[in-house]
Amino acid sequence: MCNLYTLRRSMAEVAAHFDASPAAGSNAGDEVYPGYPGLVVRAADGQRLVQSMVWGFPLRLKTMSPTAKPKPVNNIADLRKPMWVGLARKPEWRCLIPLTGFAEAEGAKGAKTRTWFSVKDEPVFAWAGLWRDSAEWGAVYSGVMTDCNAAIRPVHDRMPVLLHRDEHERWLHGSFDDIIALQERCFPDALIVTERTSEPWVKRKAAEAAPSLF
After folding, report:
1. C-alpha 139, offset from chain centre
2. What is the pLDDT of residues 18-43, one digit of tens each?
3. E strands within 61-184?
4. Predicted confidence (pLDDT) at residue 135 exceeds the cutoff of 60
5. Which domains does the chain carry?
6. Distance from the Cα of residue 188 to its chain's centroid
7. 125 and 118 in contact (C-beta within 8 Å)?
8. Where does the source fall among the domains of life (predicted)?
């Protein structure tokens, strides 16, 4: 499960990279946690738009009190599941999540550190996602996951669905079969750059994330 990623590029740089227009008033931090804003690229009126949304679809469990805050479902395990399939079939609800790296926790319990992954020779790359409007947090998004490749397997058995530049349009406008194929294909091991660090896994309090069971 991916619960932390970075986007260490300006809005203008992101917009230029994805051939998109920046939405007025959009902003996000360079470290993104579930329940916090991140930048998203989506199709709108025949062009691409970069805007900020909250990372995670709000989920209210039956066991939660009526006053409790929803949990952000920030990862999508299977696009065919009922929670996602309706959105996934409609291109208007698909999005690209720009990032410069994503982290997984590694190490002994209580002493886990951040291990970072990025894509070789790509200053910004795209994670496949879905978005929608919510009553709780406005526009929200979640990232699609898949089985890990060999480069990530020593740290985690899952990884984000990373897209090559020539796959962006296929994700945004392709058929449902097209995007299922992208979720099921394996991203090349040789393109993954791994950086192990001594950074504690959590440096600041992040919003509580819901399990990636959907």
Report:
1. 14
2. 999 999 888 888 999 999 999 999 99
3. 71-73, 75-76, 94-99, 101-106, 113-119, 125-134, 138-147, 158-160, 162-163
4. yes
5. 4-58+71-100+123-146+160-188 (3.90.1680.10)
6. 19
7. yes
8. Bacteria
